[in-house]
Specification:
InterPro entries: Arg_succ_lyase_C, Argininosuccinate_lyase, Fumarase/histidase_N, Fumarate_lyase_fam, Fumarate_lyase_N, L-Aspartase-like. It is a single chain. The chain is built from 19 helices and six strands. With 457 residues, it is mostly helical. The chain has three domains: 88 residues, Fumarase C, Chain B, domain 1; 236 residues, Up-down Bundle (Fumarase C, Chain A, domain 2); 65 residues, Ribonucleotide Reductase Protein R1, domain 1 (Orthogonal Bundle), CATH 1.10.40. The strands form three sheets. The chain has a two-stranded antiparallel sheet with strand order 1-2. It is elongated, with a radius of gyration of 31 Å. The model has no long low-confidence stretch (mean pLDDT 95). The structure holds arginine (ARG).
Length: 457
Amino acid sequence: ESNLLYRSRLDRDLDKAVLDYVSSISDDGEIIMYDILGSQAHTVMLYETGLIGRRDAGRILSALQGLEKARPGQDGKHEDIHELIESLVIGKAGPASGGRMHTGRSRNDQVALDMRMKIRHDTAAIFGQTAGLVRSMLELASRHTGTVMPLYTHMQQAQAGTFSHYMLAHAGALTRDAGRLCDSFPRVNQSPLGAGAVGGTSLPIDRGMTAQLLGFEGLVENSIDATSSRDFAAEYASVAAILMTNLSRLAEDFVIWSTSEFSFIELPDSLSSPSSVMPQKKNPDIMELTRGKAARAIGNLTGVLAASKGLATGYGRDLQEIKPLLWGSGRMASGALAVAESAVRSVTVNKAAMRKAASRGYLAALDVAEGLVIEGVPFRKAHKITGKLVQSAAAAGKPLDRLPPAEIKKALRGSGVDAAAVARLVRSATVQESLKRRVSRGSPAAAEQSRMIKEAG
Ligand code: ARG
Protein backbone atom coordinates (compact mmCIF):
# COMPACT_ATOMS: atom_id res chain seq x y z
CA GLU A 1 0.00 0.00 0.00
CA SER A 2 1.44 3.34 -1.08
CA ASN A 3 1.98 6.09 1.48
CA LEU A 4 0.84 8.65 -1.08
CA LEU A 5 -2.83 9.20 -1.79
CA TYR A 6 -2.95 8.68 -5.49
CA ARG A 7 -0.48 6.07 -6.67
CA SER A 8 -2.96 3.36 -7.74
CA ARG A 9 -1.79 3.64 -11.34
CA LEU A 10 1.78 3.11 -10.16
CA ASP A 11 2.97 -0.06 -8.50
CA ARG A 12 5.84 1.18 -6.47
CA ASP A 13 6.33 4.01 -4.01
CA LEU A 14 8.74 6.81 -4.74
CA ASP A 15 12.23 6.33 -3.37
CA LYS A 16 12.85 8.62 -0.43
CA ALA A 17 15.35 10.68 -2.41
CA VAL A 18 12.89 11.05 -5.29
CA LEU A 19 10.09 12.08 -2.97
CA ASP A 20 12.38 14.72 -1.46
CA TYR A 21 13.17 15.91 -4.96
CA VAL A 22 9.57 16.21 -6.17
CA SER A 23 8.07 17.45 -2.93
CA SER A 24 7.18 21.13 -2.55
CA ILE A 25 6.15 20.67 1.06
CA SER A 26 8.97 22.85 2.41
CA ASP A 27 7.70 25.80 0.34
CA ASP A 28 4.02 25.17 1.06
CA GLY A 29 3.86 26.45 4.63
CA GLU A 30 3.07 29.87 3.18
CA ILE A 31 -0.12 28.64 1.51
CA ILE A 32 -1.51 26.23 4.08
CA MET A 33 -4.13 28.79 5.18
CA TYR A 34 -5.26 29.38 1.64
CA ASP A 35 -5.38 25.68 0.84
CA ILE A 36 -7.74 25.18 3.77
CA LEU A 37 -9.90 28.20 2.87
CA GLY A 38 -10.09 26.96 -0.71
CA SER A 39 -11.09 23.48 0.44
CA GLN A 40 -13.76 24.92 2.73
CA ALA A 41 -15.29 26.97 -0.09
CA HIS A 42 -15.05 24.02 -2.47
CA THR A 43 -16.79 21.74 0.05
CA VAL A 44 -19.61 24.24 0.61
CA MET A 45 -20.06 24.51 -3.15
CA LEU A 46 -20.11 20.68 -3.54
CA TYR A 47 -22.86 20.55 -0.94
CA GLU A 48 -24.85 23.47 -2.38
CA THR A 49 -24.77 21.94 -5.86
CA GLY A 50 -25.85 18.56 -4.49
CA LEU A 51 -22.59 16.83 -5.39
CA ILE A 52 -22.03 15.72 -1.80
CA GLY A 53 -24.45 15.22 1.08
CA ARG A 54 -24.87 17.28 4.21
CA ARG A 55 -23.22 14.76 6.57
CA ASP A 56 -20.19 14.36 4.33
CA ALA A 57 -19.83 18.12 3.94
CA GLY A 58 -20.13 18.56 7.70
CA ARG A 59 -17.46 15.94 8.38
CA ILE A 60 -15.06 17.42 5.84
CA LEU A 61 -15.52 20.93 7.23
CA SER A 62 -14.94 19.77 10.82
CA ALA A 63 -11.88 17.83 9.72
CA LEU A 64 -10.48 20.92 7.99
CA GLN A 65 -10.77 22.90 11.20
CA GLY A 66 -7.48 23.47 12.96
CA LEU A 67 -5.42 21.95 10.15
CA GLU A 68 -3.54 25.22 9.62
CA LYS A 69 -1.49 24.10 12.60
CA ALA A 70 -0.40 20.98 10.73
CA ARG A 71 3.21 21.84 10.10
CA PRO A 72 4.20 20.52 6.71
CA GLY A 73 7.33 18.48 6.44
CA GLN A 74 7.08 16.84 9.84
CA ASP A 75 6.98 13.28 8.63
CA GLY A 76 8.76 14.04 5.35
CA LYS A 77 6.54 11.80 3.24
CA HIS A 78 4.18 14.23 1.57
CA GLU A 79 4.39 15.50 -1.95
CA ASP A 80 2.78 18.84 -1.24
CA ILE A 81 0.33 20.69 0.97
CA HIS A 82 -2.69 19.64 -1.10
CA GLU A 83 -1.91 15.99 -0.62
CA LEU A 84 -1.07 16.47 3.05
CA ILE A 85 -4.32 18.30 3.83
CA GLU A 86 -6.40 15.81 1.89
CA SER A 87 -4.86 12.83 3.67
CA LEU A 88 -5.38 14.51 7.04
CA VAL A 89 -9.03 15.14 6.16
CA ILE A 90 -9.49 11.54 5.07
CA GLY A 91 -7.80 10.42 8.28
CA LYS A 92 -10.12 12.53 10.43
CA ALA A 93 -13.41 12.31 8.48
CA GLY A 94 -12.92 8.78 7.16
CA PRO A 95 -12.60 7.75 3.51
CA ALA A 96 -16.37 7.64 2.92
CA SER A 97 -16.72 11.36 3.65
CA GLY A 98 -13.17 12.76 3.42
CA GLY A 99 -12.65 10.92 0.14
CA ARG A 100 -15.28 13.21 -1.43
CA MET A 101 -13.45 16.50 -0.83
CA HIS A 102 -11.38 16.40 -4.03
CA THR A 103 -14.49 15.95 -6.20
CA GLY A 104 -14.50 18.21 -9.25
CA ARG A 105 -11.09 19.80 -8.77
CA SER A 106 -7.41 19.08 -9.34
CA ARG A 107 -4.20 20.07 -7.64
CA ASN A 108 -3.57 22.18 -10.73
CA ASP A 109 -6.45 24.58 -10.15
CA GLN A 110 -5.85 24.24 -6.41
CA VAL A 111 -2.22 25.38 -6.48
CA ALA A 112 -3.07 28.27 -8.82
CA LEU A 113 -5.82 29.24 -6.37
CA ASP A 114 -3.52 29.11 -3.33
CA MET A 115 -0.87 31.17 -5.08
CA ARG A 116 -3.35 33.81 -6.14
CA MET A 117 -4.78 34.06 -2.63
CA LYS A 118 -1.31 34.35 -1.09
CA ILE A 119 -0.18 36.99 -3.60
CA ARG A 120 -3.44 38.88 -3.24
CA HIS A 121 -2.85 39.02 0.51
CA ASP A 122 0.80 40.03 0.22
CA THR A 123 0.04 42.66 -2.43
CA ALA A 124 -2.38 44.35 -0.04
CA ALA A 125 0.07 44.11 2.88
CA ILE A 126 2.99 45.51 0.89
CA PHE A 127 0.76 48.26 -0.46
CA GLY A 128 -0.05 49.29 3.12
CA GLN A 129 3.63 49.36 4.06
CA THR A 130 4.53 51.35 0.95
CA ALA A 131 1.85 53.92 1.72
CA GLY A 132 3.16 54.13 5.29
CA LEU A 133 6.71 54.74 4.08
CA VAL A 134 5.52 57.48 1.71
CA ARG A 135 3.76 59.17 4.63
CA SER A 136 6.93 59.04 6.74
CA MET A 137 8.92 60.47 3.82
CA LEU A 138 6.49 63.37 3.44
CA GLU A 139 6.74 64.01 7.17
CA LEU A 140 10.55 64.08 6.98
CA ALA A 141 10.41 66.29 3.88
CA SER A 142 8.12 68.77 5.61
CA ARG A 143 10.80 69.34 8.27
CA HIS A 144 13.51 70.02 5.68
CA THR A 145 12.13 72.46 3.13
CA GLY A 146 14.92 74.83 4.21
CA THR A 147 17.73 72.26 4.44
CA VAL A 148 20.13 73.17 1.66
CA MET A 149 22.17 70.45 -0.02
CA PRO A 150 23.99 69.92 -3.30
CA LEU A 151 22.24 67.99 -6.04
CA TYR A 152 24.44 65.61 -8.00
CA THR A 153 24.68 64.20 -11.48
CA HIS A 154 27.49 61.73 -12.23
CA MET A 155 28.06 62.07 -8.47
CA GLN A 156 29.50 65.52 -9.19
CA GLN A 157 27.91 68.61 -7.70
CA ALA A 158 25.30 69.94 -10.10
CA GLN A 159 22.72 72.38 -8.70
CA ALA A 160 21.47 73.73 -5.41
CA GLY A 161 18.82 71.57 -3.75
CA THR A 162 17.01 70.95 -0.50
CA PHE A 163 16.65 67.75 1.48
CA SER A 164 12.86 67.92 1.22
CA HIS A 165 13.14 68.02 -2.56
CA TYR A 166 15.36 64.93 -2.39
CA MET A 167 12.94 63.08 -0.10
CA LEU A 168 9.98 63.95 -2.31
CA ALA A 169 11.76 62.41 -5.29
CA HIS A 170 11.81 59.04 -3.53
CA ALA A 171 8.28 59.50 -2.23
CA GLY A 172 7.22 60.01 -5.86
CA ALA A 173 8.83 56.77 -6.99
CA LEU A 174 7.31 54.82 -4.10
CA THR A 175 3.89 56.29 -4.82
CA ARG A 176 4.19 54.74 -8.28
CA ASP A 177 5.16 51.42 -6.66
CA ALA A 178 1.99 51.65 -4.59
CA GLY A 179 0.10 52.36 -7.82
CA ARG A 180 1.61 49.30 -9.50
CA LEU A 181 0.54 47.12 -6.54
CA CYS A 182 -3.00 48.52 -6.86
CA ASP A 183 -3.12 48.05 -10.61
CA SER A 184 -2.02 44.43 -10.42
CA PHE A 185 -4.55 43.53 -7.73
CA PRO A 186 -7.65 43.00 -9.92
CA ARG A 187 -5.62 40.77 -12.26
CA VAL A 188 -4.45 38.44 -9.49
CA ASN A 189 -7.86 38.55 -7.81
CA GLN A 190 -9.58 36.13 -10.25
CA SER A 191 -10.43 32.57 -9.31
CA PRO A 192 -8.95 29.60 -11.18
CA LEU A 193 -10.77 27.10 -8.95
CA GLY A 194 -12.95 24.62 -10.82
CA ALA A 195 -10.79 24.66 -13.94
CA GLY A 196 -9.75 21.14 -12.98
CA ALA A 197 -6.54 19.63 -14.28
CA VAL A 198 -6.69 21.51 -17.59
CA GLY A 199 -10.03 20.79 -19.27
CA GLY A 200 -12.77 21.31 -16.69
CA THR A 201 -15.06 18.62 -15.27
CA SER A 202 -18.17 16.62 -16.21
CA LEU A 203 -19.64 17.35 -12.79
CA PRO A 204 -22.10 20.28 -12.40
CA ILE A 205 -19.86 22.43 -10.17
CA ASP A 206 -20.44 26.15 -9.65
CA ARG A 207 -17.22 28.08 -10.19
CA GLY A 208 -18.92 31.41 -9.56
CA MET A 209 -19.94 30.30 -6.08
CA THR A 210 -16.43 29.38 -4.92
CA ALA A 211 -15.07 32.56 -6.49
CA GLN A 212 -17.57 34.61 -4.55
CA LEU A 213 -17.06 32.74 -1.27
CA LEU A 214 -13.33 33.37 -1.53
CA GLY A 215 -13.69 37.07 -2.31
CA PHE A 216 -12.53 36.97 -5.93
CA GLU A 217 -13.68 39.61 -8.40
CA GLY A 218 -14.30 37.03 -11.10
CA LEU A 219 -12.98 33.92 -12.82
CA VAL A 220 -9.96 33.08 -14.88
CA GLU A 221 -12.46 31.54 -17.23
CA ASN A 222 -10.55 29.36 -19.67
CA SER A 223 -9.53 26.16 -17.88
CA ILE A 224 -6.13 25.95 -19.63
CA ASP A 225 -5.37 29.58 -18.86
CA ALA A 226 -6.54 29.21 -15.25
CA THR A 227 -4.25 26.27 -14.49
CA SER A 228 -1.14 27.04 -16.49
CA SER A 229 -0.73 30.83 -16.72
CA ARG A 230 1.64 32.44 -14.27
CA ASP A 231 1.75 35.97 -15.63
CA PHE A 232 0.15 37.10 -12.37
CA ALA A 233 3.22 35.68 -10.62
CA ALA A 234 5.59 37.41 -13.05
CA GLU A 235 3.72 40.68 -12.53
CA TYR A 236 3.99 40.40 -8.76
CA ALA A 237 7.70 39.49 -8.94
CA SER A 238 8.19 42.41 -11.30
CA VAL A 239 6.37 44.93 -9.11
CA ALA A 240 8.42 43.66 -6.14
CA ALA A 241 11.67 43.91 -8.12
CA ILE A 242 10.91 47.49 -9.19
CA LEU A 243 9.97 48.42 -5.64
CA MET A 244 13.18 46.85 -4.32
CA THR A 245 15.18 48.69 -6.98
CA ASN A 246 13.67 51.98 -5.85
CA LEU A 247 14.45 51.19 -2.21
CA SER A 248 17.96 50.16 -3.20
CA ARG A 249 18.62 53.58 -4.74
CA LEU A 250 17.57 55.26 -1.51
CA ALA A 251 19.72 52.78 0.42
CA GLU A 252 22.74 53.55 -1.74
CA ASP A 253 22.44 57.29 -1.00
CA PHE A 254 22.11 56.58 2.71
CA VAL A 255 25.21 54.38 2.65
CA ILE A 256 27.28 57.05 0.91
CA TRP A 257 25.90 59.87 3.02
CA SER A 258 26.70 57.99 6.24
CA THR A 259 30.43 57.99 5.44
CA SER A 260 32.72 60.31 7.43
CA GLU A 261 33.59 61.94 4.10
CA PHE A 262 29.99 63.03 3.52
CA SER A 263 28.43 62.90 7.01
CA PHE A 264 25.15 64.18 5.55
CA ILE A 265 23.12 61.76 7.64
CA GLU A 266 23.49 59.45 10.60
CA LEU A 267 21.40 56.39 11.38
CA PRO A 268 20.65 55.67 15.05
CA ASP A 269 22.63 52.96 16.85
CA SER A 270 19.56 50.74 16.88
CA LEU A 271 19.74 50.53 13.08
CA SER A 272 23.52 50.19 12.78
CA SER A 273 25.85 47.22 12.95
CA PRO A 274 29.25 47.00 14.65
CA SER A 275 32.38 45.30 13.40
CA SER A 276 33.64 42.13 15.04
CA VAL A 277 37.14 43.57 15.09
CA MET A 278 37.20 47.36 14.54
CA PRO A 279 35.81 48.95 17.69
CA GLN A 280 35.06 52.31 16.06
CA LYS A 281 32.70 50.95 13.41
CA LYS A 282 29.06 51.86 12.96
CA ASN A 283 28.00 50.31 9.69
CA PRO A 284 24.78 50.91 7.71
CA ASP A 285 24.31 47.17 7.09
CA ILE A 286 20.53 47.45 6.76
CA MET A 287 20.95 49.66 3.72
CA GLU A 288 23.57 47.42 2.17
CA LEU A 289 21.24 44.47 2.67
CA THR A 290 18.49 46.32 0.83
CA ARG A 291 20.88 46.66 -2.12
CA GLY A 292 21.73 42.96 -1.83
CA LYS A 293 18.14 41.85 -1.51
CA ALA A 294 17.17 44.00 -4.49
CA ALA A 295 19.63 41.88 -6.48
CA ARG A 296 17.83 38.74 -5.34
CA ALA A 297 14.41 40.23 -6.15
CA ILE A 298 15.63 40.91 -9.69
CA GLY A 299 16.90 37.31 -9.84
CA ASN A 300 13.53 36.02 -8.65
CA LEU A 301 11.73 37.88 -11.42
CA THR A 302 14.13 36.35 -13.92
CA GLY A 303 13.49 32.94 -12.36
CA VAL A 304 9.72 33.25 -12.68
CA LEU A 305 9.93 34.34 -16.31
CA ALA A 306 12.48 31.67 -17.17
CA ALA A 307 10.39 28.91 -15.59
CA SER A 308 7.34 30.04 -17.58
CA LYS A 309 8.73 30.87 -20.98
CA GLY A 310 9.47 27.40 -22.30
CA LEU A 311 6.57 25.60 -20.73
CA ALA A 312 4.17 23.84 -23.06
CA THR A 313 0.61 24.99 -22.42
CA GLY A 314 -1.04 23.10 -19.56
CA TYR A 315 0.38 22.61 -16.07
CA GLY A 316 3.97 21.42 -15.88
CA ARG A 317 5.80 20.65 -12.68
CA ASP A 318 8.36 23.32 -13.50
CA LEU A 319 5.78 25.76 -12.13
CA GLN A 320 6.36 24.43 -8.63
CA GLU A 321 9.77 26.10 -8.60
CA ILE A 322 8.18 29.54 -8.90
CA LYS A 323 6.59 29.46 -5.47
CA PRO A 324 9.66 30.02 -3.23
CA LEU A 325 10.79 32.87 -5.49
CA LEU A 326 7.50 34.66 -4.95
CA TRP A 327 7.47 34.09 -1.21
CA GLY A 328 11.08 35.34 -1.10
CA SER A 329 10.34 38.50 -3.06
CA GLY A 330 7.37 39.29 -0.83
CA ARG A 331 9.38 38.74 2.35
CA MET A 332 12.25 40.89 1.08
CA ALA A 333 9.97 43.73 -0.04
CA SER A 334 8.18 43.72 3.29
CA GLY A 335 11.45 43.66 5.24
CA ALA A 336 13.07 46.35 3.12
CA LEU A 337 10.03 48.61 3.51
CA ALA A 338 10.07 48.14 7.27
CA VAL A 339 13.74 49.07 7.66
CA ALA A 340 13.42 51.95 5.20
CA GLU A 341 10.55 53.32 7.26
CA SER A 342 12.59 53.00 10.48
CA ALA A 343 15.52 54.74 8.80
CA VAL A 344 13.38 57.58 7.44
CA ARG A 345 11.70 58.09 10.82
CA SER A 346 14.90 58.15 12.82
CA VAL A 347 17.62 59.49 10.54
CA THR A 348 19.60 62.49 11.79
CA VAL A 349 20.07 65.01 9.01
CA ASN A 350 23.31 66.95 9.34
CA LYS A 351 22.20 70.32 7.95
CA ALA A 352 25.57 71.96 8.56
CA ALA A 353 27.48 69.33 6.58
CA MET A 354 25.03 69.58 3.71
CA ARG A 355 25.20 73.36 3.66
CA LYS A 356 28.99 73.32 3.76
CA ALA A 357 29.20 70.85 0.90
CA ALA A 358 26.78 72.97 -1.11
CA SER A 359 28.93 76.07 -0.67
CA ARG A 360 32.07 74.46 -2.04
CA GLY A 361 30.91 73.77 -5.59
CA TYR A 362 29.72 76.03 -8.36
CA LEU A 363 26.07 75.16 -7.96
CA ALA A 364 24.80 78.55 -9.14
CA ALA A 365 26.80 78.59 -12.40
CA LEU A 366 23.70 77.79 -14.45
CA ASP A 367 21.97 80.78 -12.82
CA VAL A 368 24.70 83.11 -14.13
CA ALA A 369 24.24 81.74 -17.64
CA GLU A 370 20.46 82.05 -17.34
CA GLY A 371 20.90 85.61 -16.05
CA LEU A 372 22.78 86.38 -19.25
CA VAL A 373 19.93 84.84 -21.22
CA ILE A 374 17.60 87.34 -19.58
CA GLU A 375 20.05 90.06 -20.70
CA GLY A 376 19.49 88.87 -24.28
CA VAL A 377 22.62 86.72 -24.71
CA PRO A 378 21.99 83.45 -26.62
CA PHE A 379 22.16 80.52 -24.17
CA ARG A 380 25.07 78.79 -25.94
CA LYS A 381 27.18 81.94 -25.69
CA ALA A 382 26.11 82.49 -22.06
CA HIS A 383 27.15 78.91 -21.28
CA LYS A 384 30.58 79.52 -22.78
CA ILE A 385 31.16 82.77 -20.89
CA THR A 386 30.04 81.25 -17.58
CA GLY A 387 32.32 78.28 -18.19
CA LYS A 388 35.22 80.73 -18.45
CA LEU A 389 34.14 82.47 -15.25
CA VAL A 390 34.04 79.17 -13.37
CA GLN A 391 37.42 78.24 -14.80
CA SER A 392 39.03 81.42 -13.46
CA ALA A 393 37.30 81.07 -10.09
CA ALA A 394 38.49 77.46 -9.79
CA ALA A 395 42.03 78.48 -10.79
CA ALA A 396 41.99 81.21 -8.12
CA GLY A 397 40.50 78.75 -5.59
CA LYS A 398 37.55 81.10 -5.00
CA PRO A 399 33.78 80.67 -5.03
CA LEU A 400 32.10 82.19 -8.07
CA ASP A 401 30.54 85.08 -6.14
CA ARG A 402 34.03 86.21 -5.00
CA LEU A 403 35.54 86.38 -8.47
CA PRO A 404 37.52 89.68 -8.75
CA PRO A 405 36.28 92.18 -11.40
CA ALA A 406 39.57 91.93 -13.32
CA GLU A 407 38.99 88.21 -13.82
CA ILE A 408 35.43 88.87 -14.99
CA LYS A 409 36.73 91.34 -17.60
CA LYS A 410 39.26 88.78 -18.78
CA ALA A 411 36.61 86.10 -19.19
CA LEU A 412 34.39 88.49 -21.17
CA ARG A 413 37.12 89.67 -23.55
CA GLY A 414 35.85 89.95 -27.09
CA SER A 415 32.32 88.81 -26.18
CA GLY A 416 30.65 92.22 -26.30
CA VAL A 417 28.78 91.41 -23.09
CA ASP A 418 28.40 94.15 -20.46
CA ALA A 419 30.89 93.53 -17.59
CA ALA A 420 28.81 95.39 -15.01
CA ALA A 421 25.79 93.17 -15.67
CA VAL A 422 27.93 90.06 -15.40
CA ALA A 423 29.50 91.30 -12.18
CA ARG A 424 26.00 91.70 -10.70
CA LEU A 425 25.08 88.17 -11.72
CA VAL A 426 28.31 86.76 -10.33
CA ARG A 427 27.81 88.50 -6.95
CA SER A 428 24.51 86.74 -6.50
CA ALA A 429 25.82 83.34 -7.62
CA THR A 430 25.32 81.81 -4.17
CA VAL A 431 23.37 78.71 -3.20
CA GLN A 432 20.88 80.73 -1.15
CA GLU A 433 20.17 83.13 -4.03
CA SER A 434 20.02 80.24 -6.47
CA LEU A 435 17.33 78.48 -4.42
CA LYS A 436 15.35 81.74 -4.20
CA ARG A 437 15.50 82.06 -7.98
CA ARG A 438 14.09 78.58 -8.67
CA VAL A 439 10.67 79.15 -10.18
CA SER A 440 10.06 76.13 -12.38
CA ARG A 441 7.47 73.60 -11.35
CA GLY A 442 8.93 70.67 -9.38
CA SER A 443 12.15 72.55 -8.56
CA PRO A 444 13.61 72.77 -5.03
CA ALA A 445 12.10 76.24 -4.44
CA ALA A 446 10.65 76.49 -0.91
CA ALA A 447 7.20 77.35 -2.22
CA GLU A 448 7.27 74.38 -4.59
CA GLN A 449 8.28 72.05 -1.74
CA SER A 450 5.41 73.17 0.45
CA ARG A 451 2.95 72.86 -2.42
CA MET A 452 4.15 69.37 -3.38
CA ILE A 453 4.09 68.09 0.23
CA LYS A 454 0.58 69.45 0.64
CA GLU A 455 -0.65 67.90 -2.59
CA ALA A 456 0.99 64.53 -1.91
CA GLY A 457 -0.30 64.32 1.68
N1 ARG B 1 3.02 20.75 -5.68
C1 ARG B 1 2.52 21.19 -6.94
C2 ARG B 1 2.96 22.62 -7.20
O1 ARG B 1 3.36 23.23 -6.31
C3 ARG B 1 1.04 21.12 -6.96
C4 ARG B 1 0.45 20.73 -8.26
C5 ARG B 1 0.82 19.36 -8.61
N2 ARG B 1 0.13 18.94 -9.77
C6 ARG B 1 0.53 17.88 -10.44
N3 ARG B 1 -0.17 17.56 -11.47
N4 ARG B 1 1.61 17.22 -10.15
O2 ARG B 1 2.92 23.10 -8.30
